[in-house]
Amino acid sequence: MNSGGNSYETRIYVPSGFEPGQPTPVVLNFHGLGSTGIQQVALTDYEALAKSEGFIVVHPTGLDIPGRGASWELDQTDIPGRDDLAYANDLIDLMIADYCGDTNRIYSTGMSNGGFFTSRLVCELADRLAAASSIAGVSHFDDCNPSRAVPFLAFHGTSDKVVPFLGGTSSLGDGVAGDSTFFDQVMPEEFAEFADDAGCSLEPEVKTISNEVTSFDYGDCGLDTPMRFYEITGGGHTWPGSPIGPLLTAFLGKTTDDINATTLSWQFFSEHTLN
């Protein structure tokens, strides 16, 4: 797909029961740094769920950063010659025009760099997203000013060494403050800023889901917009419930099977429309 003078590999899965002319929900699923759309397919198993639930899922591949691989452009990493925000806008337009994507049921999710990118879309494309979910990376950028409160989920492991739960140096490199491998964001605090934008009480209701999973639900939000953060105790830089999680333990840490970020996110998405 061409956008802004660049070509993005864009994998679009249409379920077998798709009916032309029937508005269909669309999930945009963005991969992490150095990964690809097809690897995100394997990590999240979203296409199997799309087949059974009857929605379209899109797995784009970002443009390369030399030495780091495919990526998504974030607010603090403006890269000359590309505009991934414009690409996301163009992609939504394409899904609506050519695939009968439902304008009121466009959703975004992503892993790590893709989770951060989803955060950026919540900030800047709030009028186009019905709901969103970020896994292993959520950031409320300094100039974030959503035009509306977007129902939002986030998942993060407390033992994540790539994007540390409480901030700090990433295992990706010997980062120092201000370097791209140093994170000054504290994940639950970043998410709480989105809840604050939505007018929520900043004293969340805490629920123990399992020995490994705790949820934090922010209430009293404007327009009853749900905002929920999942803390995965001992979880690594992983996608909860991923079918290939055990294969990645040595590199990325433990993957919990107590919850599944794909099914939980879709259940959440299916409850929300723009209008």
Summarize the structure in short.
By secondary structure, the chain is of the alpha/beta class. It is 25% helix and 25% strand. It has helices spanning 37-44, 46-53, 84-99, 113-124, 187-197, 249-252, 261-269, and strands at residues 2-3, 6-7, 10-13, 24-30, 56-60, 63-65, 69-71, 101-111, 131-135, 152-157, 168-169, 182-183, 205-208, 213-218, 227-232.
Can you offer a commentary on this structure?
The protein has a single domain, classed as Alpha/Beta hydrolase fold, catalytic domain (Rossmann fold, 3-Layer(aba) Sandwich), CATH 3.40.50. The chain is 25% helix and 25% strand. The two termini are 29 Å apart.
Q: Provide the CATH superfamily.
A: Alpha/Beta hydrolase fold, catalytic domain
pLDDT average, as an integer?
A: 94
> What would the principal axes of the Cα set say about the shape?
globular
User: Ranges with pLDDT <50 over ≥5 residues?
Assistant: 174-179
Second CATH tier, the architecture? 3-Layer(aba) Sandwich
Structural class based on helices, strands and sheet pairing: alpha/beta
End-to-end C-alpha gap: 29 Å
Sheet-strand content, in percent, reads 15-25%
Q: Give the strand tally.
A: 15
Order of helix and strand elements from N to C terminus: EEEEHHEEEHEHEEEEHEEEHH
Helix fraction by DSSP (H/I, runs of at least 4): 10-25%
Number of domains: 1
The major sheet is characterized as:
9 strands, mixed
Radius of gyration: 17 Å
CATH topology, anyone?
Rossmann fold
Number of helices: 7
| Order of the strands making up the biggest sheet | 3-5-4-8-9-10-15-14-13
Q: What's the CATH first level?
A: Alpha Beta
